[in-house]
Amino acid sequence: MRIETGIVQGALRATLVGPGGRVEASGVAAGGDLDGNGIEEQRVGFTTADLATVFSGAPVGTHRSHAELLIRCESWASSIPIDLTVIRPEGIAVVMAPNPLREKAQIQFFMPAPGPVRVEILGVDGRRAAILADGARHEAGMVQLPLYRHNLLPGLYFYRVVTGSGSASGRFVVLGF
């Protein structure tokens, strides 16, 4: 994997390259000259979907990987090596945030291949409280589904995500107003 950054027309650009592809991000002002060195700081970040794309080609399991951060400016360049551990579960991994839920949350997961998706919300008694996706076809990549509180009373709930690549479940709490 390789991370490249550089100044392009005064703005920071970064490219993250890995086994699943490459993604780009733009820098934004970080609030001025924060460290007093006469240079206005910029920051750049990659989303969860970006990272899922970059690592989609990584093998299932846990393995060590190497990255390199390349920083280019008009008058200098620097390279910083980065070693990291990549954990890619078999099947699918689901993240729901925020948890506990007050009004709205996101359920997100990575689809390694296109196909149908079913996402259910279940009460502690096992009864279906909501269906977020009922066999809708999604393309390969990061899937994000909104979960609104609407008719969910305060308490403990479970989500279940079923795709052609596997299934996953988890629990979450709905708070009162």
Describe the secondary structure blueprint for this structure.
Layout: E1 2-8, E2 11-18, E3 21-26, E4 28-29, E5 42-43, H1 48-55, E6 61-72, E7 77-88, E8 94-97, E9 104-111, E10 115-123, E11 128-138, E12 141-148, E13 155-163, E14 166-174
Parallel strand pairs: 1-6
Antiparallel strand pairs: 1-2, 2-3, 4-5, 6-7, 8-9, 9-12, 10-11, 10-13, 13-14
Explain what the structure shows:
The structure is a single chain. This protein is mainly beta and 177 residues long. It has two domains: 2-88, no CATH class; 94-174, Macroglobulin (MG2) domain (Immunoglobulin-like), CATH 2.60.40. It has a five-stranded mixed sheet with strand order 3-2-1-6-7, covered by helices on one side. Strands 11-10-13-14 form a four-stranded antiparallel sheet, with no helix packed on it. The termini are far apart. The protein is 5% helix and 60% strand. The mean pLDDT is 77. It is built from one helix and 14 strands, in the order βββββαβββββββββ. The chain has one helix at 48-55; strands at residues 2-8, 11-18, 21-26, 28-29, 42-43, 61-72, 77-88, 94-97, 104-111, 115-123, 128-138, 141-148, 155-163, 166-174.
